[in-house]
Model the fold of this input.
Amino acid sequence: MMARVETPICKFDEPAKPFYLLGIDGKYHSLESCKAEAGLLVMFICNHCPYVQAILPRLLVQVKELQQEGIGVVAICSNDANTYPEDSFENMQLLGEKWQLSFPYLWDETQAVAKEYGAVCTPDFFGYNNNLLLQYRGRLDASGREPASLDAKPELVLAMRQIAMSGKGPFEQIPSMGCSIKWKS
Done:
């Protein structure tokens, strides 16, 4: 049984936490190497979560738009791969190949980065301005695990564009929801 979890409210202006993690491309990536001129979107995702699987096609299109607008994007998988083998590094690489990811997909094997960020679920979105100060901790859109309606407001994209333009995120944010991060015992 997958426990549904919601993210906490945004702690505005909280600094991004440094990381140095192995990506599915075989290279190590850091906070500094992932940020871009207009900000950074840090996403905690995984392979097996039905919430992530449901939004992945839309998410990939939307993050490409953000990247073209000068916003950096990185995804991190922190789940315990011993308990959830679908989330192993090898399976992360397979997902990356299948979907032709346009951003680094990093393995947080020790789960230290997820703990530093206070990540609670997949997907969990952290939107930072160009000073790497937190401005968004909301959802992709209203769809959750369902297919998005044609008029679904792209909340994440709109928030990241606002952050890129003004340095500040929207005051009202609706929490993301998903499966809890699978912590090691």
